[in-house]
Amino acid sequence: MLRYLSPLLFLAVLIIVFAKGLGPERNLNELPSPFLDKQAPKFDLPGLINPDEQISSSVYAGEVAIVNFWATWCGGCRQEHGFLMELSRKNEIPIYGIDWRDRRVEALNWLSQLGDPYRVSGFDADATTGIDWGVYGAPETFLIGKDGRLLHKHLGPLDRNTWETDFAPLIAAENGAQQ
Amino acid sequence: MSRLSAIALFLLVPWLAFGIDSGKAFDDPELQARYEAIIAEVRCVKCQNQTIKDSNALIANDLRREIRRLLAEGKSDVEVYAFLVERYGEFALYRPRMSGKTLVLWMAPGLFILLGGIFTARVVRGRMALPIDDDDIEVDEATG
How much is the average pLDDT of A28-41? Predict the structure, then answer.
């Protein structure tokens, strides 16, 4: 009996493994961040709006915040911009921007035309900070915990749906755990 | 004549190929050789089936620049790879380093050969124990 069942069992295991590995949720472009659950990288950049001002990652020390890498040449960034505006309007979470591989004039234009959802934006013209954060394609959004840990990284445009499923529970847990 | 000039024209086509890595080469040929060896081992994280040596994606360009900078600073190959893995994970290397996380990856081929070998040996030994004049159908029943 076992002799006939074991190939079937083997097949069942294979089907499960491949269904998991090749299922519709598979996204080959999305790499897990090596910083997940560890201290998120730091940055220290000239300001986008005021180049004389130096902006560092200590601006969000002690709070739950998101760091959003964006650029004016990036279609996904335009797509998510409305949602970032909504987050900022409703004061759901502090958003810090890093304008990545971009031109300052165009970035300033973008913010004045479409609105500025960021508390403050750093300007990373040559992508060195991007590399420190493991960024490889804008937009990328990093959720930072109160103690500076990386709680979640999202690749691609943000929307309400992703926010509610991937970000909101982590934010709630982070706020609940440390009150 | 026109055929000849057509051939001559086609011979010029390879000139259309252009260099991807437009960065300035190191003065030291040994350093340049190390640089070229490293970039052939690093995956372009945006275009995952290319090395950053072959890719002209923005990120590949940035990574080449960083690697060039690190080597110019006198960093060793190991340090350069560590820099990349720290930021992009083992996936950034075409040959991931041996570690707890990648042990399965490195061991899997040997493990599969071993399992296959054991399986084959068992089947063969089982069949060898049978009388030679049995036909296949009976063999199946006999070993069951």
Answer: 88
Instruction: Give this prediction's pTM.
Output: 0.80
pLDDT digit string, tens, across residues B82-133? 999 999 998 899 988 888 778 888 899 999 999 999 999 999 999 888 887 6
**CA pair distance B10, B16, nearest whole angstrom:** 11
Task: Indicate yes or no: CB of A31 within 8 angstroms of CB of B91.
Answer: yes
CA–CA dist B45, B48 (Å, integer): 5
Which domains occur in chain A, in start order?
Answer: 32-177 (3.40.30.10)
- Cβ–Cβ contact B86 with A under 8 A: yes
Q: Is B46 on the interface with A (CB under 8 A)?
A: yes
Mutate to test the interface with B, among A131, A135, A142, A150 (most CBs of B within 10 A): A131
Please give the average per-residue pLDDT across A83-97, as a whole number.
96
Identity of the residue in B45, B46, B144 whose CB atom sits nearest the CB atom of A3: B144
What is the C-alpha to C-alpha distance for residues B60 and A160, in angstroms, rounded to an integer? Answer: 32
Provide the phi-psi class of B89: left if phi over 0, else alpha when psi is between -120 and 50, else beta: left
Are A137 and B91 in contact (CB < 8 Å)?
A: no
- What's the pLDDT at A15? 93
Side-chain-side CA neighbours of residue B144 (13 Å): 12
Q: The complex's ipTM?
A: 0.84
The reported pLDDT for the residue numbered B144 is 45
> How far is Cα B111 from Cα B119, in angstroms, rounded to an integer?
12
Q: Is B7 helix (H, G, I), strand (E, B) or coil?
A: helix
